[in-house]
Amino acid sequence: MPPKRQPDQSAPATVSATGVAYEGPERGRDPRAQAGEFLTTPNGVRIPDTDHSLKAGRRGPVLLEDFHLREKIMHFDHERIPERVVHARGAGAHGVFTAYGNAAGVTRAAVLAEEGLETPVFVRFSTVLGSRGSADTVRDTRGFATKFYTKEGTWDLVGNNMPVFFIQDAIKFPDIIHAGKPHPDREIPQAQSAHDTFWDFVTLHTEATHHTIWNMSDRGIPRSYRTMEGFGIHTFRLVNADGETSLVKFHWKPKLGVHSLIWEEAQIAAGVDPDFHRRDLADAIEAGAYPEWELGIQVMPDNAEETFEGIDLLDPTKIVPEELCPVQRIGKLVLTGNPTNYFAETEQVAFHTGHLVPGIEGTNDPLLQGRNFSYLDTQLSRLGGPNFTQIPINRPHAPVNDNSRDGFHQHGIHEGVVAYKPNGIDGDAPAVADAAHGGYVNVPREVEGEVVRGAPASFDDHFSHAALFYASLSADEQKHVAEAYTFELGKVYEQAIKERALTVLAKIDTGLCRAVAEGLGLPAPEGTPVEHLAPSPALAQVTGESYPIEGRLVGVVAGPGADIAGVTALREALEAEGAMTKLIAPTGGELSRDGATEVVERTFVTARSIEFDAVVVAGGAPQDKDVKSVVLLLESYRQLKAIGAWGDGADVLTATGIDVDGPGVLTADSAGALAGDLIAAMGRHRVWERAPLVTASQVPPAA
């Protein structure tokens, strides 16, 4: 575990998942919690022996009357519930959302409108395609689902780290997931889209083009959940206290900026640390580097056409560029607590796009309306029945009186004989609430039209927004997109699918199409790229902007003769900025010199480049080259990370083949002098100036 920092006293406190105060012998304790000094059965009967079955004689048969054996085995046999069909691989955290209050003009939802109101939340991040046992760092869309336990009921904002989706209508959701999942004959490849069925579908069903190019970009392999944007995907309708409406899109903006992994890092991490993202999230929270996002909205007029600047707001494969409609920040999310139990919280949490509160409504987006059915239906299979909202992690923090009864896993003990309305026996209780009493009253709107299976003509544009996205990226990001397409299509066996994919790329960008065709050894088809809106700089990750380094990790390579006082000084300077260090040495234990001592946290055997955001060689480090330390330094150099050294530590870099005068290679006489430059370099995430000098297959030029 990382070293703990004293938490910021101003940070919001983590809220219990249950929200229940128990007035019993153990005041304040949830009666469903596991507690007590002695081992018991599920019914609370204390057990004297849990190592031996009850037998007829020590060598005799096991007796059916052994209720403890049967209960223990029965529960073990049913410990696993069906995993999610999609988003099975996930990680979660508790936190608090604080409203700025500036959204009161567009919504009466207290969670967004009341200045300073703190609402407890639980957030679950996930991949889409892989099973629960798959790796975190695969190329895939990431889920970003937030459950707000508001005083008006539960609101679920169920989004992704990409603002668009593969399909425009939910009726095609089984098709895209069947195409993306492992082939049914061999159940491979796991958690990957680099195979025939996926590319067969998305090249025939070209409305998937925009989402596909986001997946092929660096957004498909985020550096951390903490450095992901989140999007509500759909257009929602907000209603203010006067009944006025606006159409909005939701955005999560990370405090640490939007950063991604290099492809080589993602591949290494999948083998070395398949839990890379969940470990990063948990360790950051444990260390007090609480992840933060601001919630923003793009506010657009609620016109009859439900369009904005010619963009169909009901089409989930389209975006509204931020340059056309700026994102207004309306609140802050801070994650402050790790789950106590993964299954009880992260696995059992149930999200639903239809969980809305007064002041927030859906729209006619056909994907959203289908999701409203799918999410609810899914819980019946996964969580065993209709009472899944009574599971502590799903339980609302607002009073519930729904007249529902019975069913699997009913925890409530209902009193009286009335469970219907109207009733005369119980004074017609419970009462219904109008808008003045906080009731969820939909804004009246006209609905008309012929009953038809179809879509608006505007849904036929499948390429202009994909072209807009690609044109908005930096040159380095565009290069990564071409490499991703080349890799993925290179895994496809059917020649016709590759050729069809190239015809799609020809409609996006001629240079992209040619680069991928060259990589595949195929001719680039003729094609004229579509016209698109002006590039949106907000879509590029590589901007040169600097961000806080909270939760970042620096590896410090040191040997028996290292300047330990310098190591301590560097660690303290980085910790003042919220970053952490790990000392890397040939063997474990401690390193001491001149009365200063530091604990070795990684050895050359256990350290790998993917763990660190920068690597520094301490002064006084040994000059002999250990092959594993060489690999660590060269990988970090190739992955465009800041490399540093002080004193004669620079000689180690030179001996490794790293040019100490090259971009992003920082040297100084002392650790203190190095710290400032290192912090600045880490704030830019990567040394993009080094990119032309290296590829994944090259070593850096010798000094």
TrEMBL record:
Cofactor: heme
InterPro entries listed in its UniProt record: Catalase (IPR018028), Catalase_AS (IPR024708), Catalase_clade2 (IPR024712), Catalase_clade2_helical (IPR043156), Catalase_core (IPR011614), Catalase_haem_BS (IPR002226), Catalase_immune_responsive (IPR010582), Catalase_large_C (IPR041399)
Annotated region (Disordered), positions in chain: 1-36
Positions annotated to bind heme: R84, R124, F173, R371, Y375, R382
Domain Catalase core positions: 40-429
Domain of life: Bacteria
Pfam family, one: Catalase-rel
PROSITE patterns cross-referenced by the UniProt entry: CATALASE_1 (PS00437), CATALASE_2 (PS00438), CATALASE_3 (PS51402)
Cross-linked residues, 3'-histidyl-3-tyrosine (His-Tyr): H352-Y375
EC category name: oxidoreductase
Catalytic activity field: 2 H2O2 = O2 + 2 H2O
EC number: 1.11.1.6
CC terms in the record's Gene Ontology section: cytosol
Family: Belongs to the catalase family. HPII subfamily.
Name listed for the protein in its UniProt record: Catalase
